Fold this sequence. Notes:
Layout: E1 2-7, H1 12-28, E2 32-37, H2 40-43, E3 53-56, E4 59-63, H3 69-84
Parallel strand pairs: 1-2
Antiparallel strand pairs: 1-3, 3-4
Amino acid sequence: MLHIKVLGPGCLNCYLVEQVAVDALEMLDVEATIEHITDYNEMRKYPIMYTPGLVIDEELVCAGRIPSIKEVISRLKEAMAEESGA
């Protein structure tokens, strides 16, 4: 199962990133866990300079902006391919 993290203090943009991720998962009919990370010490584990950030399976895929749904779908497909060993 995919694991998604939204990095940020809980601002509107963080929730928009989370919604884009949820919408992308629904479009792909894929299940994933989604976690919102607001702790700055936890965020520092990733190479992020600006929030919001989107992490898929421990890889920072977007930071400092709200990604398009097309971009998130592409990243989710890549992560699923890696998970399946393809």
